[in-house]
Amino acid sequence: MKINGQQNQLSKIEKSRPKINDKSVKKSKNRSVSSGLLEISSLASELSDIHNDIKNIPDVRTEKVENLRQKIQHGDYEIDYDKLSDILSKYL
Fold this sequence. Notes:
- This protein is mostly helical.
- The chain has four helices and two strands.
- A two-stranded antiparallel sheet has the order 1-2.
């Protein structure tokens, strides 16, 4: 299946994953399963760190909002109507 001209990522993963009957998978006690679990665990740890970093990013840029709020209160905020109309015309 192709989405936007790119091959589905799930099919790439499935193709690269060894099959149960594949001879490249060793049946030793420690190497076959545990190495795969370690890779998944390290990836999960990295994803968890990234997720936590993203959660710590504020949804609102408070400095910019406060700056605009002060400009509006003091009457210093000026609207560029030409720029505004150009932006709005893209959505009409």
